[in-house]
Structure formats: C-alpha cells, structure tokens
C-alpha cells in the first residue's frame, strides 16, 4: 500500500511540473539558470564577498529547483552588483560610545525571465546583522557575512520564483 501511495504521489508532483516542495512556482518551460558574477562596488570592500554571494545564489537555485546552471543566457538570468557593505553603530550608551554595531550588505539585482518577461525585476535587497561593539569585526565577519548572504539569497529566490 505504501508503495502505491508513493508512486501515486510521485506521479502527481511530477505531472504538475510547476510546483516544488520549496514553494517555487517555475513554469515547466523554464529549464536553465544563469548567474553573472556580482562585483563589489561598495565603498568598503570585503575581498571574498562577490564570490561568496554569487556562489550562494547559484547554490540556492541548484538545491531548490531542477534548473540546469549554464554560463550565460539562461531562461532565468541574474546579474547585478554589491552596492553597500558597511559597519555602523546602531545603539549608543550614555557616554556616547556604541554598544551595538550593524553590518549591512545591499545588493542590486536584475532578474530576467525569458519565458515570462512580466516577472522581470530590478530591485535592491538589503540585510543586516547586529553585533556587540565589544567584539572585533574581524573575528566575526565571516560568520556575519554568511548569515546575511543566506538571508539575501533567500529573499531574492522568493522574489524571483516563489511569488509570495
């Protein structure tokens, strides 16, 4: 009985073609994905951020969809640039010193859907993470960048294919 249920469930989800368990709504006509390198044009440059962000965006789509990654000209195509990478105080104590700092990353994204051009967009996505000013940014920067990058990538994925 379990085998029949499993096969039936598999056939239903495969026949639909548009639904995935991630919530992505991708037309069955869309088969390929391309992601251009996102250069870092921020005033403060983290030397690994461009590569980290670009690869995280690719990985999100590879892991969450059945799209084939190609170098350029994909049915879904992403390009853009990192436009802000900054550390600023967000909470000040009574003696005028920062008690909390905020690392912010902002990415300008251009998305093109060759199958459904009405879904194309250009938008800035920004995320941040706060940390105590007593911590040295150099010691926690990699962890913060990873967290913020994952949030950015999830938001971009949702905007492009989840249709929330």
* Count of helix runs: 3
Helix content: 25-40%
Strand content: 25-35%
Write out the CATH superfamily name.
Lipoprotein like domain
CATH class: Alpha Beta
Mean of residue pLDDT values: 86
Question: Globular, elongated, flat, extended or rod-shaped: what is the shape?
Answer: elongated
Domains (count): 1
Strand order of the largest sheet: 2-1-3-4-5
Spans of at least 5 consecutive residues whose pLDDT stays below 50 are 3-8, 10-22
**Named CATH topology:** Double Stranded RNA Binding Domain
> What is the radius of gyration computed over CA atoms, rounded to a whole number of angstroms?
20 Å
Structural class determined from secondary elements: alpha/beta
The ordered string of helix (H) and strand (E) elements is: HEHEEEEH
Largest sheet: 5 strands, mixed
Comma- or semicolon-separated keywords:
single chain, 164 residues, alpha/beta, Double Stranded RNA Binding Domain, five-stranded mixed beta sheet, 3 helices, 5 strands, 35% helix, disordered N terminus
Task: Write a short abstract of this structure.
It contains three helices and five strands. It is α/β, with parallel strands linked by helices.
Structure commentary:
With 164 residues, this protein is of the alpha/beta class. It has a single domain (30-162), classed as Lipoprotein like domain (Double Stranded RNA Binding Domain, 2-Layer Sandwich). The chain is 35% helix and 31% strand. The protein is built from 3 helices and 5 strands, in the order H-E-H-E-E-E-E-H. The protein has helices at 2-16, 49-64, 137-162; strands spanning 32-35, 68-69, 76-92, 98-113, 121-132. It has a 5-stranded mixed β-sheet, with helices on one face. Strand 4 (98-113) and strand 5 form a beta hairpin. Helix 2 runs parallel beside helix 3 (137-162).
